[in-house]
Amino acid sequence: xxxxxxxFDRLRSEEKILEKQAVELGYESKMVDAKxxxxxxxxxxxxNNFGDVxxxxxxxxxxxxxxxxCLEFLDIPVINKFDVSNICGNKLLTSLLLRKNNIPxxxxxxxxxxxxxxENLDKIGYPVVxxxxxxSWGRNIIPLKDKDTSEAVIEQREITDGPLDRIFYxxxxxxxxxxDIRVITVGDNAIAAMYRKSSGGFxxxxxxxxxxxxxxxxxxMEDLCAKTSKAVGGGILGIDLMEDKKKGLVVNEINNTVxxxxxIKVAKTNIPKEMIDFAVNSIKK
Length: 285
What we know:
The protein is an alpha+beta fold. The protein has helices at about 15-25, 60-75, 80-90, 90-100, 115-125, 145-160, 220-230, 270-280, and strands at about 5-10, 30-35, 55, 80, 110, 130, 140-145, 170, 180-185, 190-195, 210-215, 235-245, 250-255. The protein has a five-stranded antiparallel sheet with strand order 11-10-9-12-13. It has a four-stranded parallel sheet with strand order 2-1-3-4, with helices on both faces. It has a four-stranded antiparallel sheet with strand order 5-8-6-7, sandwiched between helices.
């Protein structure tokens, strides 16, 4: 009997739903806390029981990425693959890859020092949005409406001096309705989508209080998401679209460990079943 392993670092409702769905479909299922697991360079595939295929569901980008690397070192099938996780967890890498594949995405600017960022902003003008290269749930995404605001943000980064604080990722402020669209793709296929409406600010994250509403998947959305998924290597993804009033649909971000507790409430498709089926089918090929 096929055994599915779900790796987590914080047990959320999504992981519990996936485990329950796997059992209901007739598979064995086990949960593994990444924080209590260890490897070494002499580790063998049979040293730990990770089942036949792993769904890597860590909240921590770096923990999940390096855990995935260890699993692939042991030739254990894991979704999503390391290369997919690496790209989707880093906004700069994602933006470059989208543009290289001619996928519509907001114009984005990169600089690697405070002074270069000041020069960049003088040329770009305002308003723009500054984002951390790595991060989720809308944290530390700040609209820069004027030079005073940008200077305050730059000064704060110089004080904190985190490992990624010298990578400045600045994006045009897209003229759009107060919402975005989250599409879940499984194996390059768009299976469910929702509008995430702003709860007052410009952010549309469900974690920050945005309200989910079912969104019918159009042919345009389906084609755009399929192209996006293939560009990053496929798997199980959450693709965030924005409705630019001039450009039409643009891809904003791609989520490697996609949450679905909001969308599952309104979706017609059985999202966890699609994910489990994909994981099982991936090892039958």
